[in-house]
Amino acid sequence: MTHDIAAVARHFDLAGELIAAAPIATGHINDTYVLTATAHRRPIRYVLQRINHDVFKDPPQVMENVVRVTEHICAKVFRNDPELASRQLAVIPAEGGSACYRDAQGNFWRVYNFIERAVTYDTPESPGLAREAARMFGWFQSLLTDLPGPPLHETIPGFHDTPRRFEFFQEVLKADAQNRAARARPEIDFLFQNAGICRVLADLVAGGEIPVRVAHYDTKINNVMLDSTTGTGVCVIDLDTVMPGLSIHDFGDLVRTAACPAAEDERDLSKVALDISLFEALAQGFARETGWFLAPAEKSHMVFGGKLITFEQMIRFLTDYLRGDVYYKVHRDGHNLDRTRTQMKLVQSIIEQEESMNRLVERAFQNSSGGTN
Ligand code: GN1
Ligand code: MG
Predict the structure, then answer these.
(1) What is the CA radius of gyration of the chain?
(2) In angstroms, rounded to a whole number, what is the distance separating the alpha carbons of residues 349 and 15?
(3) Which long-range contacts (CB under 8 A, 24 or more apart) does 269-274 make?
(4) Which of 17, 29, 267, 318 is the most exposed place for a label (fewest CB within 10 A)?
């Protein structure tokens, strides 16, 4: 569907006149545009997004979370580094001061400041980049350890409820409405053989060994912005899924996306494997910022988190493939099956290297300021 972006933009408190609006193709879920306005002949850029309300059923709740989190982070960073605080995400209010605007068709729109002189990477090009991205997600979590007020909204209920996702996969498989299961036999078998992975964390949370914190829940490497000159982390973006959750899940998703240089939809599976030096860098970066507050059971399950989240992502891609590609945007036939296969290959690679990965995490936490617990 095409939208009248200029008309939408008029509902926000932009500085000056809108002179350009360009779509950017990024992410599987929301629609994103870069807006340029000029005030006193100086261009100011913004990011306009249509929140996908099929995925996020209650966009105002998403925005309530986002405003609380961005304001808390900005205020805390400001105390030590006002320049860095000015480069954090901030919600630009819509008319009447609300955090998003609802158009006549029922779409929800929101605007952020554009973080200038910063870049994102889709793949970890070096251990240094992986370390810095991981440090940023750890920093994000540490900044939110003292978020005041009630728990955040769960913007997608059961988002990392892996047992529930596995149950849903089984229902979809049973129906096989698109007749696609036959093309995914080895992948389906793999899920059943490894289904024991799903329950482990739920049990540790229920037993009180692992606390629920504020989690980002989409810790892909391209959700970190780095300064384009120095390569130093600037801020964490894509806050729609920030909600009560597990630190292990965040580290796990980082392992999934940043410890393997191949793209998520790579068809040449020989390129898909966990790279141990990228993984070590991730562990070091994350431990540096989180060592002081994580519980022992969280530290000792970080590698498991990588395996779990990759396994869960495999369940999610395969479920969507079997349903007929209704959730993730696809750009070719079998796209979700290709994605499923990369995740499976990565889980296998993690299983093969699990022991040495655990040793690296232990060492990373020992060397972080927080020690091992
Ligand atoms: C989705 O749209 P994007 O790229 O930010 C998804 C993540 C998945 C990811 C897989 C709300 O994220 O959970 O890990 O695709 N976001 C949602 O690439 O489902
Ligand atoms: Mg996202």
Answers:
(1) 21
(2) 50
(3) 269/341, 269/342, 269/345, 272/342, 272/345, 272/346, 272/349, 273/345, 273/346, 273/349, 274/306, 274/346, 274/349, 274/350, 274/353, 274/357
(4) 17
For 67-86, how does the pLDDT look when each residue is reduced to its tens digit (9 = 90+)?
999 999 999 999 999 999 99
Cα of 338 from ligand 2 centre, angstroms: 20
Which pair of tokens denotes residue 335? 């796209």
Gap from CA of 321 to ligand 1 centroid (Å): 15
Nearest of 188, 216, 204, 210 to residue 317 by alpha carbon:
188
Ligand 1 pocket test: pick from 24, 28, 317 the residue with the most ligand atoms within 8 Å of its Cβ: 28
Residue where the block lists tokens 């999610």 = 316
Distance separating alpha carbons of residues 87 and 325, to the nearest angstrom = 36
> If you measure from the C-alpha of residue 41 to the centroid of ligand 1, how many angstroms do you get, rounded to a whole number?
37
CA-CA-CA-CA torsion sign (160, 261, 122, 188): negative
Write out pLDDT tens, residues 22-60: 999 777 788 999 999 998 889 999 999 999 999 999 999
Handedness of CA 118, 93, 213, 144 (dihedral sign): positive
| Residue ranges with strand state E in the chain | 17-24, 31-39, 42-51, 91-92, 101-102, 108-113, 118-119, 213-215, 224-227, 233-236, 243-245
d(CA 215, CA 298): 13
| Closest to 101 measured CA to CA, from 59, 69, 70 | 59
Structure tokens at 293: 């507050």
Instruction: Tell me the average pLDDT across 184-210.
Output: 96
pLDDT band, residue 369 (cuts 50/70/90): low
Mean pLDDT of 168-197: 98
CA separation for the pair 259, 346 (Å, rounded): 9
What are 87-114's pLDDT values in tens digits? Answer: 999 999 999 999 999 999 999 999 999 9
Query: Would you tell me how many other CB atoms lie within 10 Å of the CB of residue 115?
Result: 21
pLDDT of 119: 97
